[in-house]
């Protein structure tokens, strides 16, 4: 994860010129995707042939691996017969990759269950094939790899921790607690090493079949179980089916049993990844940061983390009371601003996107104004039984709680108490993401490993 950058995102004219100069393409249309990572959809011609091209650049606020390493991983998969988009080339002058734009969509809205199962099975076949590939070419190409095979299970998780610590600027007692637990209970790979996607479950499908495996920015040499685990969180938004059946099918395809104990630890580690990747960008956002998106992602997956710990420890989780909204003199003015942003439109899709982000930010700030003082009071009240006294301010509370957590990190004597404490704190953070009933405050628990129906403690009843 490199330091945040304010480098200029290439202008569409720069992208078109780079494609012409480096790859001999004549661009006929170009549109930047309105998302957190610079990405352009291009229609072009080369040697009289029409081409649909995607140009992907580095993330704006944080980068986990060099983009050229992603390109190398992508090309190795392509040569090995994995269904990935064709790489047209590396664009050095704008630091981007040009690749085939594959047809299809990433979700299963309106797709019959049987068709979905076929696509998921084809994706599993790709994973099983990926996990048989010789790691030597990947190592020679400079892919991230643990110094010892037995550390392959913790490689990316601890790399994210290392990079997070480089940018840590203020206490984060929850993440310190969860990382302490992870260091005592790491995913043990028992020496398993294969090429892995890590950020799995991303693909396109069309006409009932898989078209391509996508988004390879985390690709490295690691424990293949991780590819069956990170996927679980994406299932909360794109249902893929019963993961017990998915695992059984993978075992049939690969001839290897899925290490469920390793998967449980991988899941907890993966649930911490948004906080580690985007935490610094949330505390200190740079221009272009999709702040509300980052905040909501981290808040949602922090809840996944406390839910994962509770399942592992076999304890029940608490709920929290939603405080009564505080009335303010500015309520009418704030509501008027929010409504104006809601109905505002622009011809420029990026302007409309920015307006939408401002709308979400305004609703979040309104909710913080309504509930924030009560939330801080409840969080500080929760600290009295743990610390033996009630700190005066939220920042003093965070500082003291982090010191308590770090002192307990080696033994975990207070694990159960702290899981419940942090779950309450995470719930209170989440309910401030937006107004009642909005998608920003909705929570979708991950499938449990034991097959039991998860309890949604963030069901606010609104």
Q: Report the span from N to C terminus.
A: 38 Å
Number of helices: 15
Oligomer: single chain
Helix content: 40-55%
Structural class: alpha+beta
SSE string: HEEEHEEHHHHEEEEHHHHHHHHH
Low-confidence stretches: 1-6
**Rg for CA atoms:** 23 Å
Q: Which strand-content bin applies to the residues?
A: 5-15%
- Large-scale geometry: globular
Q: What does this 3D model show about the protein?
A:
- This protein has 462 residues and is α+β, with helices and mostly antiparallel strands.
- The protein is 47% helix and 11% strand.
- It contains 15 helices and nine strands.
- The chain has helices at residues 12-23, 67-79, 113-130, 136-140, 155-167, 173-184, 231-234, 243-254, 260-271, 273-283, 291-313, 331-343, 349-387, 394-408, 415-430; strands spanning 26-32, 39-46, 49-57, 87-91, 96-100, 194-196, 203-206, 209-213, 220-222.
- The strands form three sheets. It has a five-stranded antiparallel beta sheet with strand order 1-2-3-5-4, sandwiched between helices. A two-stranded antiparallel ribbon has the order 6-9. A two-stranded antiparallel sheet has the order 7-8.
- Strand 1 and strand 2 (39-46) form a beta hairpin.
Key descriptive features of the protein:
five-stranded antiparallel sheet; single chain; 9 strands; alpha+beta; 15 helices; 462 residues; globular; disordered N terminus; two-stranded antiparallel ribbon
Describe the structure concisely:
With about 450 residues, the protein is of the alpha+beta class. Helices cover about 45% and strands about 10% of the residues. The model is unreliable at about 1-5 (pLDDT under 50).
């Amino acid at each position: 994860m490199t330091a945040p950058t304010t480098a200029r995102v290439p202008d569409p004219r720069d992208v078109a010129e780079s494609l012409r100069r480096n790859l001999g393409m004549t661009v006929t249309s170009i549109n930047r995707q309105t998302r957190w990572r610079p990405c352009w959809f291009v229609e072009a011609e080369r040697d009289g042939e029409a081409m649909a091209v995607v140009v992907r650049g580095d993330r704006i606020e944080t980068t986990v691996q060099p983009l050229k390493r992603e390109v190398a991983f992508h090309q190795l998969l392509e040569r090995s017969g994995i269904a990935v988009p064709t790489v047209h080339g590396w664009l050095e002058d704008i630091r981007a990759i040009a690749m085939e734009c594959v047809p299809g969509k990433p979700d299963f809205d309106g797709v019959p269950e049987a068709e979905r199962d076929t696509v998921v099975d084809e994706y599993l076949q790709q994973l099983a094939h990926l996990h048989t590939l010789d790691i030597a070419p990947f190592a020679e190409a400079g892919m991230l790899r643990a110094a010892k095979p037995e550390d392959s299970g913790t490689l990316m998780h601890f790399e994210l921790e290392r990079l997070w610590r480089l940018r840590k600027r203020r206490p984060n007692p929850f993440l310190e607690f969860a990382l302490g637990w992870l260091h005592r209970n790491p995913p043990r790979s028992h020496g398993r090493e294969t090429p892995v996607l890590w950020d799995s479950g991303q693909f396109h499908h069309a006409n009932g079949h898989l078209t391509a495996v996508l988004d390879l920015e985390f690709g490295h040499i690691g424990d293949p179980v991780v590819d069956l685990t990170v996927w679980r969180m994406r299932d909360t938004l794109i249902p893929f089916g019963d993961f017990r059946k998915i695992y059984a099918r993978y075992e049939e395809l690969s001839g290897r049993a899925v290490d469920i104990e390793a998967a449980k630890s991988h899941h907890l580690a993966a649930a911490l990844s948004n906080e580690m990747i985007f935490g610094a960008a949330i505390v200190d956002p740079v221009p272009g940061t999709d702040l509300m998106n980052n905040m909501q992602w981290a808040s949602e997956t922090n809840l996944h983390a406390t839910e994962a710990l509770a399942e592992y420890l076999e304890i029940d989780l608490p709920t929290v009371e939603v405080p009564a909204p505080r009335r303010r003199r500015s309520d009418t003015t704030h509501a008027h601003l929010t409504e104006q942003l809601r109905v505002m439109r622009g011809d420029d899709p990026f302007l409309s996107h920015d307006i939408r982000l401002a709308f979400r930010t305004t609703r979040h700030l309104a909710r913080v104004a309504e509930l924030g003082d009560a939330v801080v009071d409840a969080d500080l009240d929760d600290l009295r039984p743990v610390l033996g006294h009630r700190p005066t301010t939220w920042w003093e509370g965070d500082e003291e709680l982090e010191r308590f957590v770090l002192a307990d990190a080696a033994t975990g004597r207070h694990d159960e108490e702290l899981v419940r404490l942090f779950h309450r704190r995470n719930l209170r953070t989440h309910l401030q993401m937006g107004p009642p009933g909005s998608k920003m405050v909705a929570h979708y628990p991950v499938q449990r490993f034991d097959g039991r129906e998860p309890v949604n403690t963030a069901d606010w009843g609104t």
